[in-house]
Amino acid sequence: MNLLTEVKEGTRISWGAIRANKMRSVLTTLGIVIGIVTVTLMGTAIAGLNRAFLKNISFIGADVLYIDRFDWFVNSHEAWMRMQKRRPVTETHANALREQLTMARAVAPVSETSTSVRYRRRGGDSVRVIGTTEQYGFTSSVGLSLGRFMSASEASGGRPVCVIGSEVATNLFRRDAPLGNRITIGGKSFEVIGVLEKQGSFLGLFSLDNQVIVPLAQFAASFWHEPDCSIQVKVKELEQLEEAREELRAAMRKVRRLAPTTPDDFAINQQDQFVKMFHRVGGTIAAVGVFITGLSLFVGGIGIMNIMFVSVAERTREIGIRKAIGARRRTILLQFLIEAASICLLGGLIGLSIAWPLTLLVQKVLPATLSPTIVGIAILVSLVTGVLSGFFPAWRAARMNPVDALRTGE
Amino acid sequence: MLQTMSLIRLTKISRRYQMGSETIHALREVSLQIARGEYVAIMGPSGSGKSTLMNLIGCLDSPSSGEYELNGVQVSQMGDNQLADIRNREIGFVFQTFNLLPRSDALRNVELPLIYAGMPSEERRQIALEALSQVGLADRIHHKPNELSGGQRQRVSIARALVNKPSILLADEPTGNLDTKTGIEILTLFDELAKKGNTLIVVTHEEDVARHARRILRIRDGLIASDDRTEHPTGKEGRLTALTA
Fold first, then answer.
1. Interface confidence (ipTM) of the complex
2. B139 CB-contact burial (10 Å; exposed 0-12 / middle 13-18 / buried 19+)
3. Nearest to A326 among B61, B101, B117 (CB)
4. pLDDT (tens digit, 9 = 90+) per residue, B134-164?
């Protein structure tokens, strides 16, 4: 008998057996159903988290290098103490870099503080105030929903103009149009020339829309004399990020007049660090999550194995009959393997049909969809579970001695 | 010359079982030849070794020592899968308890050996239908075993045993679970099959059943105690026509 006929015959027998023990099959399947539901949901949630994160950090820009006094991720207290002793990064450095760099498209010094913002009687405390130049329009990926960004002359002249985040705009301006109106930032009056597009929050930590952007010269005059800066450098080609980073490092060392043996007294940060950090943390979370949900699938598999042993024991005589009239070991093995795999596959399909509406619920929180990959993996996993857990019972059946098998139940 | 004509040739066959520390000698160096077309009854009390002999002849079991040549093929050293093929091709079993698959209908039960032989479905259906009508069950093909009487079940199992055109029909107490009348019907069917040239081996402890055979082997304590040939089988032709009508 060839393999195809054996599989066909095995499938036929399996369905007969499953139908003959409906209640038992359903209960056995339940373990797999729960396993597949949890694994699918976990997979969907992890994929959703990844997507949410990548969307979240996109404002950092993959092609932008950030010069800061501190590394974004500091591993030890000693490192942090060392960095604290570094000289500040200032606008002067940014101006020098802008002249020297060849692989940079834009260089923007950025300084930040937090203060109150008012328009007539409406206002908000602790709004992020960003002092920068017109270059920020290039280094930052954020677009404008209204008006325009500051011009080079406004930036260098330190004009009292500002671009406001969407949250600030909705908080301050209920009826009036924001453009052309003057708002008070930390006691100083600024004219609104633009409104930023809505960006959402950064990893749920703080809102990116609750901010105002003013010329750095005005920022220094109004809020912080000789402010600490960070310098954003947008490279011309993303492919040359590494070369650009080296050029930037060399230029920055020159600007800061570091001796060749002195280590860097500044940090060059990039989005990549965030992604790596996320993958490290997210990878661990995903592994733990998959492991825990995998356990439920494992328990389901044990259930299948158990019931298959029962099924084999119940049908010992049938196995004997089949062997007596010419069934080979492989035929019997396949018959029971197919039965186990069918139960699991059935469970997998039921599990998916339950998981699908649940992922629609998850979608309200995360940008998650039940991807074909996850569906494929779920089906594959349930099949593999069936084959693995069915193997030992099927093997026992296949190796049965026909004389003994025929004698049972007599 | 005689040896080459033998369908079954057992040479010094022994079968030992290990029961804890004790070794049980179910068969002790039994030698036996059965020619094609013979109708043999194997008799003996329980524990005599007749079931062991039947299992060995039926290739359900392998001997501990000795040689078994079936239809010119040495089968005593064969592995599980080879024996399965031999059983499928060479042997048709008829059991006391019928041993039909309870969830499958008569046709499906009869088709089973052909499925294992790898026959395409159209062809095997034809052959199975033919076999069922030969035992007078053409109108019962879609009945499940529990919808059939004892005699009908045994006839389904005879149809199943014959469907692969085996060399030997091996019956283990074929009338043991039947009433006298039905038992006689089955034995009459056997007589008819023997007359057509089939090789029949019937294991029984009933003299009435054994008397239908033309050769009676009596087993005692793992040895062949006697081997008699009867010249006058009791089967009457009139009964078969009544049966198949």
1. 0.89
2. exposed
3. B117
4. 999 999 999 999 999 999 999 999 999 999 9
